[in-house]
Amino acid sequence: MVKRNWMLVLLSGFGLFYGTSALAADGATLYQNYCAACHQANGEGIPGTYPFINGPIGRLSGFPEGREFLVATVLFGLKGEMMQRGYTYNGVMPGYAAAMSDEEVATLLNWLKRQWNNARFGAEAPDYTPDEVAKVRALKLTPEEVHAMLQKVEAIMHAVNGREGPGGHGGSGKGKGQGRGKGKRGPRAP
């Protein structure tokens, strides 16, 4: 018994030291560690404080610009005004480029596109790959540049299918809304 426990401790320590622990490949654990505090366990966020991701990730996973935006958001964060479900958000999401490997980002996004309402839209989208993540990582974007990507993605989605941003419930809100900051409601995007 002691020998077995010692071996488990040794192997766990080895995996954590080299970043190859079994947990690193688990999308649910990555979500819990990096995302759930803001976006909540169910992906619904906190209205007026943190946006929901239950649905938009599946939609965005279905086309190249949306995929690039999602990878960039996880890596570099996001800063700028956006609107979802009638709420204007103007906060900062941190990026995790320094904390997460390309494999972990791909694992997280693959897990997310199969969860909740995302699965209705993202299940048939190709899986994210570490190579796809590495290409976006090489861009070395700022959170503001990621926000500019969001605006382009919203324009594409609106032109293609009339959705109001990535969740079908509002968009970046640039130039729209009744105010800035937490919990302020503005008009829905056209």
Tell me what the structure shows.
The chain is mainly alpha-helical and 190 residues long. It has a domain at 30-161: Cytochrome Bc1 Complex, Chain D, domain 2 (Orthogonal Bundle), CATH 1.10.760. 47% of the residues lie in helices and 5% in strands. The protein has 9 helices and 4 strands, in the order H-H-H-H-H-E-E-E-E-H-H-H-H. It has helices at 2-18, 27-34, 36-39, 56-60, 64-76, 102-112, 118-122, 130-137, 143-161, and strands at residues 78-79, 82-84, 87-89, 92-93. The strands form 2 sheets. Strands 1-4 form a two-stranded antiparallel sheet. The protein has a two-stranded antiparallel ribbon with strand order 2-3. The termini are far apart. The relative contact order is 0.18. Mean pLDDT is 77; it is low at 1-24 and 163-190.
- How would the global form be characterised? globular
Q: What is the spatial order of strands in the main beta sheet?
A: 1-4
Terminal CA distance: 65 Å
CATH structural class of the domain at 30-161 = Mainly Alpha
The biggest sheet, with number of strands, parallel, antiparallel or mixed sense and barrel status, is: 2 strands, antiparallel
In the CATH scheme, what's the topology name of the domain at 30-161?
Answer: Cytochrome Bc1 Complex, Chain D, domain 2
What sequence of helices (H) and strands (E) makes up the elements?
HHHHHEEEEHHHH
Secondary structural class: mainly alpha
List the uncertain runs. 1-24, 163-190
Secondary structure: helix percent:
40-55%
CATH architecture of the domain at 30-161: Orthogonal Bundle
User: DSSP helix count?
Assistant: 9
Looking at how many chains there are and whether they match, the oligomeric state comes to: single chain
How much is the radius of gyration in Å? 18 Å
Give the name of the CATH superfamily of the domain at 30-161.
Answer: Cytochrome c-like domain
Number of strands: 4
Mean pLDDT: 77
Strand content: 5-15%
